Amino acid sequence: MKQQRRKRHYISLIAFFILALLFSSFPTGISAQEPAVKIWPFPEDLPEQYKSSDFSISAEGLEVPVYASGLNAWGNTVSYASFESTREITVCVTVHFPLETAVILPRSLGKTAQIQGDKVFFTASPGEDITLLPDGDYNGRALHLFVRAPLENVPDSQSAEVLYYAPGYHDLSAQAPVQLASGQTVYLAGGAVVRGRFLVNGVSHVTICGPGILLNDYLANDGYDEVAIALKNSSDVTIRDLTVARSMNAWTAFMWKCSDVSVINYKGINAKYASSDGFNIANCQNVLFDRVFIRSCDDSVAIKGTGTAGYDPAENPKDALPTSNITYRNAQLWSDANNAIGIGAETVAGYFRDIRFENIDILRNYDDLNYPDQLTERSAINICALNATDIGNVTFENIRVENAKRLIGITMADSFWFGSLAGNWSWPGSIHDITYKDIQSNSNGSNQIRISGYDEDHLIHDITLENIRLGTVQLSDYDTEHFYVNEFAKSIRLISQPNPAGKLLDGPYYPLSEVHNAAEEFSVQQGENGWHYRTWQAGVGTYDMSWNPDGSGHWRGPKTWDAVWKSGDSLYMHPDETQILLEWVAPRNGSVDITGTVRKFAAEGGDGVTVSIWKNGFMLWPETGQWKPIAYNDTVGCEASVATDVSAGDILSFRVDKNGDTAYDTTEWTPVVQYRN
To answer: Per DSSP, what are the bridge partners of residue 193?
Structure first.
């Protein structure tokens, strides 16, 4: 019996030492049973439409809820999910549609995807925002995953000053926005989905926070702002740790006439086309954005001046509050339309000053679903001013661009979005002391850097471009296809390893092999890219056509059939009793080659058309001085080519006229003008 008791004693001692050894392997304060991952289940009564069927996620064996945030501009669902983790783990995403490859964004995270059938594996660490892009399709179905570190400074849910939303589904869409009082805190717990709006107006020292979701996918039409979060005339405001999901073609959130605002660890998703800006800033001072993710289908970041009582181009910007001391850092931005980073277009503010963007990944920047490559004032990193004011001391540093059309734009414009938003240059103003440093573009877009001032009284000047890299190539000279600088831009300095002191340029500068393709540069705005859409009739004269008055997507003249439009890669013209005049204004002096095949498109009948090319009222082609006839069934056509010298302001006019009648007169003609020097 003694031997048995002694044996049991030894076994107990061994078991004790084994357990002690096991527990000693865990970090201080973490028990053996405490998991690395914390998830928040779907609310039991959450409508099915808010749950994604495209992806499933497993983290440390736990199923992570995946939400659906409406459709993007191409009709595909955007999904998002979040969980809390204390350390790096491996995530498994099951993709519920055909999959061949997968891309993990941003590439600055250094992550690669491992694919096994319909499953994608990758590592994730606390504080990382990760985008999974199946088959690298930016227009397709994407997953945005937010891996949170354990939350700090969680407010007391029992405090009288805390408005607490517990886990569950809270539908507040039938009521006015929740208005915060001074000193109040709103907390959305993990697992809480609040379908509603929050308004901070004329108060101070307020906070909206928590790992829950603020959902806004409706229009209330109740006289309040139709946004998820509105901050107005307030100070000392904090937004942190919150996910805002919206599916409306309107701004997601904004602040106006506020000061001392911090937006920390904010996640905003609104993929609806269009006007779905991320979190706009207007006439505000002392603002910090840090560790944010924004997915939008308009400006992800828009820093504006909307005046003293809403945007009015007649208001002198000097009468409005300034927009100043803005820091935007450690961010990921995705914009399916307009700009990823934008200052403007509304610039009714006393001044824009001391604005800094740093350490930002631009995941995607597309210009516009309906007008791709036609809106030259759009870019990944953009300043577009509509109103004459002072914009200065702005820095863009350590910015990485994954996918974009254009890279950098600084523009002064009369109007925006086809004239729907008017500007005013009646007052003094300039854009100056703008710095772009350590900009890395991995995009296959044009990577154009476009700087376009307004006139001699409204210049863009003292612009620094330092260490601009396109792929593995550092820009060291202006003699590339990437620079477009007009005559109202001065003192542009390009700093590179070969030129550490900088290479100076005063505009104008245009690429030596500058090409103007009428179809590629087709625009819905008169004068864009130098192209004008006009008609001429004897006894009436020249008439500017109107864009899309009948919903046809055509430029239309005063008659029934006169029209110019684009389809695919070609331009089409149809005369009536009026001639079609497609006209291009030369931006600079030089020698140009004019090419392009002109042919009949509608060959079912009629009696054909006649065509010609003119310069400043003199016929260039045909050289015989007689219009060239194109037979009604000539779908092969002829090459309309000629070489000439142009001076800045010269007009090249490509004309199509009826022959006898106007039946079946649709003509395909895509003129191309290319500078030789």
So the answer is: 169, 213
